[in-house]
């Protein structure tokens, strides 16, 4: 860690390596990543920075950045010839290319190569930074900001390595300024820019760090996902036209260009940056809640998590990190309460819809205020899910699924006036949406997603479109189809990881069990309802009997009894809805969630498939080379060799990616299991409380009735 | 048999009559019956089958030399139970109601026991020799086929519609008849409804049982989180098991107290109705005779008048007995219902307390589980 003090040189070293690798790297691609012209206002800050070397290079770097970004014009490469996953895989393959390998190899002994530290243990560096303010500037940038930024600079300006650090600063600033403009609170953070040790501020003031993070994460996400997310980010960043990210956001909205740009970025050597970048963002978002909580002691073992996927070649590393992560998560003090209330019918006829009030109460500083309320409709919830799954599911994250769309139920609500069944439907959906949102925000990574924040905070959301196809039954069907397709693949895939092998089986079994339990609980609820109905009828007939009884005392006692039975009926009714909401809905939720878990496994399977395909391809290329050798055709030999190198890189990259996804999925599943046990326990407690309450009420009723019975003469 | 004489009728204490055991052999239920004579501390145990009970009932109906017999409200004998037929559960429920429920015919035995006690406690019926023979004779009396009862249910059913609505000469009886019809119907409905409640409780208990068992499926000891989840599942299984037991207990409480009480009540109302009907029949007979006498020629008038007087006397006697019986019935029915209600309330209260305690223990355990 202490080596980080020398980090400028280290960074340079590292970048040099990268540069070496990417000798043929396209300047254009890098420039595309490079920021727009810097605003004058920002420059002073830059110059004020303690890091002089960086200053020296700011000018050049800026000029570099000024170069127009031709990205959009670039023709999409192979990345786009292949499905979206490839976009993601490609970058990784580059990562795996030589320089990266070096890094990996060195990870076990970080002291040997600082560059490794930089990238494998970003947070460690953070801690370093804190301890040594002078060094801070470049480092935190690296960490807080997408790593890609520095990279691009390096790549764009191979000769001037030191620029990297400077560049990072440049990149870091824009988000801050943008946040400043967006909210008064954040204005405070703007002061930071003047200071030469911004980083310290950054870390002393966790809120700023937190607020900042989502923003950097926005653009990276863009790179990997699609236009949508870009659009999302846009409003936030827009205010600051000089902003690096704003520029990106602005370019992004044009749907195809953004795709094109991302492709160009991923092209060739450049894609490497993206890998790093994506990794960095992912890790950052993971870590940020922790930073928030524990920024004081910045030296976190969990920080090694980012390293895990990259350095997964050493088998011990990931598992260790997993454990650490677990510990981390168990310590979570989660202060975010979301409640959904006041379902309200808006509009008339078939265009009517239900709007729900989403109230959030939190002390998390990433939000603008402690309490806020927005109105959302059902499709907004679906839209949120869609956005989240687009962005995160391919990384192996478990996105909590929203409740299913019910055309029948909703039609009833639309048509019926005050039907008890439609009221029940609305209440049921309200509760389901509430649980859904709570699950989303309790996921440390998803909470960091700008879309989630926007969903909770922003007054008006753009109307979610085309949620129809993905919602409800359609969605489930799709999921099942995917699962089926993959299960066929399973046969081919010989699972080397015993843990996954067992877990996949477990999940399948569990899903069946839960379905069975769900059926049982349904019948339980129905019986309970029936009991309640029968009790009501009995109460009525007892009342009648009492009214025709001659003996006044007996008559009185009987009518009292009728009242008691009426109350007991109420109890049964409450218990029925308790049974329903505590168990039936819980089980339904978990059946859905298990579907999502399987989705994660599928993502992993896809990554594996890709890896295997690449492996096969490499094999073919090698055979081709052998043939060429045999045929003695030296002219084509070089090309074949190049192809082999290319595919070797791809294989390594896909393998890494597979390992990365495996690690994420594993982490997610462990987290899911944990949550599940906790959730069930909570529900059991709730259920017991309701049972206890019922019994206490019964005792009260019987106690009151006993003297009446005794008074009969 | 000779031992029991007319004055020995009161020699048995009604409350000592117990049905202690029941055995099922094919379609036949054999009841072990114990009772105690007042003048001895030794109990007598005999075995009886349903036909014996039926014989006793017919004997009571057909007692001779007992004026005003038709004014007596005979304690109702539960109808015959038909065990061992696979598809009889629903049929038996329809026929016997509550008495078909409960473990090993317990409630049916209770009802028979109650019937015997009522007979023995009845001031007139307890003098019947058949009762002594039934209680103490080790030989089964049912074999000596009694005469067909004079009050045949079937014939009654046919005539009922016609005669039931006959206007009474006596306001007291007219009122009583109206009230009885009302109460009989209401108590029957109440009994049925309570039966529904009990049945649903049993179904619910069964569903809980399934749920509780199925929860064991989720038990998995693979890793730490699975173990934690398994623990929760097992806990929940225990809780649901407790809920199941609670429901079973509540159901059996309902059955053994209020259920039996309401069942008895509704059958007694029927018995009263029958008595009132017999009296109405007599009244109609008397009126027919009167009309005949008026229309009759002088030569026959004398005979007819004598006959009319005899009938009128009999009718008056029946009416006076009936009046007493109705008084007696009213007070006893209030008493019986009171006892059942109190008993019911107490058991339910105890059950509620017991399970409140149990649930709070479970709750405590659950809360501790995650604080560990």
UniProtKB/TrEMBL annotation, chain A:
Listed Polar residues bias regions: 58-72
Domain PX: 334-463
Molecular function terms from GO: phosphatidylinositol binding
Listed Basic and acidic residues bias regions: 225-241, 289-299
Any single biological process term in GO: protein transport
Residues covered by region (Disordered): 31-333
Location relative to the cell: Cell projection, Lamellipodium; Early endosome membrane; Golgi apparatus, trans-Golgi network membrane
Membrane topology: Peripheral membrane protein
Matches recorded under SMART domains: PX
Biased composition (Acidic residues): 40-54, 193-202
Parts forming coiled coils: 637-664
Main localization of the protein described in the UniProt heading: other
Record-linked Gene3D superfamilies: Arfaptin homology (AH) domain/BAR domain (1.20.1270.60), Phox-like domain (3.30.1520.10)
Signal peptide (from-to): 1-20
This protein's record includes keyword Membrane: yes
Feature: compositional bias, Low complexity: 176-190, 300-320
GO cellular component terms, semicolon-separated: cytosol; early endosome membrane; Golgi apparatus; lamellipodium
Family per record: Belongs to the sorting nexin family.
PANTHER family reported for this sequence: SORTING NEXIN, SORTING NEXIN-1
Name of the molecule in the record: Sorting nexin-1
Species assigned in the record: Sinocyclocheilus rhinocerous
